[in-house]
Amino acid sequence: MSITNVIVGQKGNDKAAVALSSLIHALYELESYALVRFVKRKNDAPVMMVLAAEVEPDFECLVDVQVRWVFSLRRLSQNLTILHRSPS
Which residues contact 85 (CB under 8 A, 6 or more apart)? Predict the structure, then answer.
């Protein structure tokens, strides 16, 4: 298992909140995930993560889950560029 985080907008930063909300709603409406490469600090190793949108009536966020590089690269090499939610 990997660590899971919840990403929400920064309080008091309306411009950033609108941008994050747009990404959340785009992923949610398209029933898609985002595959991202994240580097926390300048000299840190990159981490591959999958972002999923979570939308509730009075709360929205992105949930990130770390993906191992070996798995990620193997899957990407098989022409996997967009990950879709499986039907519930």
Answer: 31, 32, 33, 52
Between CA 33 and CA 50 the distance in angstroms is 7
Domain membership of residue 86 (yes or no) is no
**What are the structure tokens assigned to 59, written together?**
């709360």
The answer as to whether 44 is a domain residue is yes
User: What are 36-51's pLDDT values in tens digits?
Assistant: 888 889 988 888 889 9
Strand partners, 62: 7, 53
Q: d(Cα 44, Cα 28) in Å, to the nearest integer?
A: 30
Tally of domains within the chain: 1
In a domain, 88, yes or no: no
Instruction: Give dist(CA 9, CA 68) in Å, integer.
Output: 26
State how far the Cα of 51 lies from the Cα of 36, in Å rounded to an integer. Answer: 7
Q: Supply the pTM of this predicted model.
A: 0.70
Q: Is residue 82 included in any domain, yes or no?
A: no
